[in-house]
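User: Please fill in residues for this 83-position structure.
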């Protein structure tokens, strides 16, 4: 009956990317929990696909970073970014 304090460490990129893919704005105030769930599902399908294709973990992290940058770019274009 113990807890591991470091569990979940390093998952911040996945969480942020899931939220942005789901359509929540960086500036706040817009979005639904159902769309975040869909964004999380999309990101996990991408991660699972890369694992099934035996892509090295370094490149998986690189792809996640690129997806995050694209999500931020799209959010900024939509007008939801910080002003």
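Assistant: Residues filled in for all 83 positions:
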């Amino acid at each position: 009956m113990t807890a591991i304090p470091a569990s979940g460490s390093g998952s911040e990129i996945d969480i942020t990317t899931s939220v942005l893919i789901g359509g929540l704005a960086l500036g706040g105030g817009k979005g639904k929990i159902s769309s975040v769930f869909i964004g999380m599902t999309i990101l996990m399908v991408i991660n699972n696909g890369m694992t099934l294709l035996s892509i090295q973990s370094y490149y998986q992290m690189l792809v996640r970073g690129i997806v995050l940058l694209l999500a931020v770019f799209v959010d900024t274009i939509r007008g939801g970014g910080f002003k």
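For context: The chain has a mean pLDDT of 85.
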